[in-house]
Automatic annotation (TrEMBL):
InterPro entries, per the entry: GRAM, GRAMDC4, GRAMDC4_PH-GRAM, PH-like_dom_sf
PANTHER family referenced in this protein's UniProt entry, alphabetically: GRAM DOMAIN-CONTAINING PROTEIN 4 (PTHR37402:SF1)
Parts forming coiled coils: 98-148
Organism lineage: Eukaryota, Metazoa, Chordata, Craniata, Vertebrata
Keywords: Coiled coil, Membrane, Transmembrane, Transmembrane helix
Example GO BP: apoptotic process
Protein name: GRAM domain containing 4
Organism: Hucho hucho
Residues in GRAM domain copies: 433-513
Length: 569
């Protein structure tokens, strides 16, 4: 029974085998189970009847009897009995082995049955299916909970940070062209007033700083200088400016709450009081529009000058000035790398205080000293604007042409049939031809730079009664010695309708308003001469002020030169 080490009936099987094995004569040799014949379950279940071999019949024994005598037969019978006994023992052993196999099969079937009853595979399968379905249900519930949790978290995040996240949505920027408002005098006036009101705080702050730097109030400037230098010495300059900003915001808050506070850095420097608005007439309104347009023109001109100077400074238009800036930037870079920032800030703060309170005051009080030693002022005033560059370029070109003409260098390059005088006069031609030929003047007479193309106007000669002679349209020029009017109605090359007036013959020059009913200061210039009873009027001039300034300046210059040369005259 060693082949069933885990069988619970091992002891009972062993006792049964001992009884089977030793029911007959005990033999020392047993057949191995491996040598026993293979039997099926059906064969093992049937009753096996072990029949001994039949003994030899008498006939056979008689036939086998040895003629030698009865002793021989006796030995043969003994041999046969031994053989039969051995076969019987062998059959008994075989039966014992079969019984052992049957018992083993029975016990194994019992064990299998008990195991089946205990395990119950079908029940286990059902339970396994139930557990599997439960697992699937739990997985579905878990997925639903996850989805619900995710959707809740997503909704919470969107409600909290959706507006901020939406700001980071990248999209192509659309170029929206805003419609421009049509030109309106009312809109222009209102915009200029808005600009004035918006720039008022800046202008007042600049006015106070200028008064502080100019020492208009000695005590205030000295007090501010001592406080600033003390703060710069101890490294408190930046906190001081921040404190002043906080103080100003606090005062503005109190003013916005209805407090009446009038405070300025320097006493005596206050905001200009605007006159109360009154009902304006039509002419006054038109004059107001003209004043606004003039202020806008001047403001835009100043802004353009500043921007053009900055552009020309960085574009090496004036190499000498830009070179100073270039060297200064290299020095500042080296100092920023070698000098500690704390020491550099201390030095800059001290220099700014001395420059603002002392150096600028000295330069402002002594203009000659400023023109010689104030480097920023010299650089800024020396920077040219684009119109100045254009004028310098034209003057340089004329200077290059004149010497060549004087030395006859252009004489060889002139085409045939063109005289030297015609070639030099082409730079100042009118619509009718060379300037000096149209007005019958010498070749040296040329229009001034400010009126190279002339000023469009109409000449009103109130001494004439004929309509064609009373008003003539044309162009007005001014030279060093003459005031020239070229009539556009002249059909021939003659200069009968052109007008030439010597500047020294002018007795009076004034701005003139042709029609008094029209608003504004007018668009004409009145010039009186001894040869006319009534002053000549050049009206409908768009650039009346520019023309008047140029004519009056040249007239004053010419009269001063003539008086210095001939005092009697």
């Amino acid at each position: 029974c060693d082949f069933l080490p885990f069988c619970p009936y091992r002891d009972a099987i062993r006792h049964r085998l001992d009884k089977i094995r030793f029911r007959g004569q005990r033999t020392d040799v047993f057949l191995d189970l491996g040598d026993s014949p293979n039997t099926s379950d059906t064969e093992c279940s049937e009753e096996i009847l072990m029949k001994p071999r039949p003994s030899l019949e008498i006939k056979d024994t008689e036939e086998l009897q040895d003629p030698a005598g009865p002793g021989t037969l006796t030995m043969a019978a003994v041999t046969i009995q031994d053989y039969q006994r051995a076969e019987t023992d062998r059959l008994n052993d075989l039966k014992g082995h079969l019984e052992i196999a049957l018992l083993e099969k029975h016990f194994l079937q019992e064990e299998l049955r008990k195991l089946r009853e205990e395990t119950n595979v079908d029940t286990l399968k059902q339970e396994l299916e139930k557990e599997r379905s439960k697992r699937l249900d739990l997985e579905q519930k878990l997925n639903l909970e996850k989805e619900t949790m995710y959707s809740w978290l997503q909704a919470w995040l969107y409600n909290r940070f959706g507006a901020y996240i939406g700001d980071f949505h990248f999209q192509t920027e659309e170029n929206i062209v805003e419609p421009e408002e049509p030109l309106s005098a009312k809109r222009l006036t209102e915009n200029m007033r808005r600009l004035k009101r918006g720039a008022k705080p800046v202008i007042n702050f600049k006015r106070n700083l200028f008064a502080l730097s100019s020492w208009q109030s000695v005590y205030t400037s000295a007090f501010a200088f001592i406080i600033y230098m003390n703060a710069a010495w101890h490294g408190w300059a930046i906190p001081m400016f921040i404190f002043l900003a906080i103080l100003r915001l606090s005062l503005n808050y109190l003013i916005s709450r209805g407090w009446r506070i009038q405070w300025s850095i320097v006493p005596g420097v206050s905001e200009p009081v605007e006159p109360p608005k009154e009902d304006l007439t039509v002419s006054e309104k038109f004059q107001l529009v003209l004043d606004v347009a003039q202020k806008a023109q001047n403001l835009f001109g100043k802004m353009a000058d500043v921007l053009e100077k900055i552009k020309n400074l960085f574009m090496w238009v004036h190499p000498e000035i830009t070179q100073k800036l270039y060297v200064g930037l290299w020095v500042a870079l080296i100092c920023s790398c070698l000098i500690p920032y704390k020491l550099m800030g201390f030095m800059i703060g001290l220099y700014a205080g001395i420059k603002f309170f002392i150096i600028d005051f000295m330069f402002r009080s002594c203009p000659k000293l400023r023109d010689k030693y104030d480097t920023p002022h010299i650089i800024w005033t020396s920077l040219p604007t684009d119109p100045q560059l254009k004028e310098r370029g034209g003057a340089t070109l004329s200077r290059r042409i004149h010497p060549a003409v004087a030395h006859g260098s252009l004489g060889t390059a002139l085409p045939c049939g063109i005289s030297l005088e015609e070639q030099t006069g082409r730079a100042y031609n009118t619509k009718k031809g060379a300037f000096h030929e149209v007005f019958n003047l010498s070749g040296d007479e040329r229009p001034l730079t400010v009126c190279e193309n002339g000023w469009r106007c109409c000449l009103i000669n109130r001494d004439r009664k004929s309509p064609t002679d009373y008003i003539r349209n044309g162009v007005l020029f001014v030279t060093e010695n003459y005031l020239c009017f070229e009539s556009s109605s002249c059909r021939s090359n003659s200069s009968k309708k052109n007008k030439v007036i010597k500047l020294i013959d002018i007795t009076d020059i004034q701005k003139y308003k042709v029609l008094s009913v029209l608003p504004g200061s007018g668009m004409g210039i009145s010039i009186a001469t001894p040869s006319t009873q009534k002053p000549l009027v050049f009206g409908a001039m768009i650039h009346r002020d520019e023309a008047f300034d140029a004519i009056f300046t040249q007239y004053t210059k010419k009269v001063t030169m003539t008086t210095a040369t001939n005092p009697e005259t």
